[in-house]
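Good morning,

Both structures are done.
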Amino acid sequence: MIDTGLLKKVRILEGMNDAQLLLLQTMLKPQNFKSGEYILKDESFGDMLYILVEGRVRVTKELVKGIDIGRADEKVLASLDGELLPTFGENGILGHAPRTANVIAQTDCLLYFITKTDFEELASRDVAAAYLMILNIARVLSDRLHTTDDNLVKLATALFIAAQQ
C-alpha cells in the first residue's frame, strides 16, 4: 500500500486532507513494469491514471503518421522520474478518449494506479476529494498544453525558415 506521506507530494492530490488521502490510498493498486515495457500506447484506450513512484519512464510520440517510411521515428517528449511522483494517463479517468502518447519504462518501475470505476467510487464517497483531483488534473493538463503550444510554435518557425531556403 502506498504511504499517505508520498500521496501528499503528488501534484494532482494537492489540497486533500488526511481522511481523503486515506480513502484514496485504499483504491490505489500497485503495478510493476520491467525496463522497456510499454505502460501506455499512443491512441490506445484505457481506464487508469498512474502515479510513478519508483524508476524512470520516457514519454514518446510517433513523428510521422500515415506514411510508411520503413521505421517508426519517435520523439521523446519527456523523461519522468519516480522521485518527483509524476502522474500520467489522466484521460483514463476523465473520459473515453484515446491515449495521447506512449509511456515506456526506462528502468524497472513501480507505479500505483486508480481505475475510472474506483475514481467514480471516490467521487460518490467524497465529492470534495474528486473535485480537488479534477481541478489539479486540469492545472497539470493546462501546463502541458502550454508547453505543447510553445513547441508547436518552435516547429512552425523551423519549418518556415527551412521552406524559405
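Second structure follows.
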Amino acid sequence: MSYPVITISREFGAGGRSIARRLSEELGIPYYDKDIVARAAEKSGYTKEEIEREGEDISRASHMLGGFLSFGAAAGYNNQYDEIFRAQAKAILEFAQSPCILVGRCADSILREAGIDCFNVFLYADLEHRVHRIEERDHEQGAKVRKMVDKRDQQRKEYYKVYTGSELGDYHNYDISLDTGVIGYDQCVEIIAGIVRRRAQQ
C-alpha cells in the first residue's frame, strides 16, 4: 500500500513519540522525531543541542527579541529561531518524499503548504494524566513536574502560532484528534492505522 505521510502534533506528555514508534512498527514505515533534529543540524550549522533547546520551545518574547535584533543589527545577522525553523522544515520535506511518520515541529502545516499528501493527527490528554506519565518517566514528583508540563505546553503553542499563524490543537488543522488518556495508546495506534490503511486502499 502507498500510505500518506502521517504527522503527529501533541500536547507535552500525551505520548506522541510512543504512539509514533508503535504506529511505525504496525505500518512498517519509519518515524522521525530526533532524526529531524539531526538532519536540521547538518543543514544549519547549529548543534543538535541548540536545535533541541530552541527548535520547538520558542516563546513569543524570544522570537520578537530575535526579530528586533535581526532588524537592528548589521547586515548579515540572522534570527537563529527562524534559521532553525527553516532547517527543520527542509528536513521534514526531505523525509516526506516517502511514507513516514513525522512528530511535531509544525510538520502538518509545512506539508500542507508544500502540497504533500498527509494525514494529520493531534494527540492530547488531561493535565493529570500527562503529569502522572511524566512523573513515572522521569522519576520525579510534585509541583516541579506540573510546572514543567505547563511551560512546555505554552512554548509549543507559541512556536506553532509564530510559525503557522494557527492554534495548536485547533481541530480544523487535523484529520483526527485523540485523547490518549481516555482511549489508550494501543487503541490510538489501532484507530490511526485502520484509517490510514483504508485511505491507502481507496
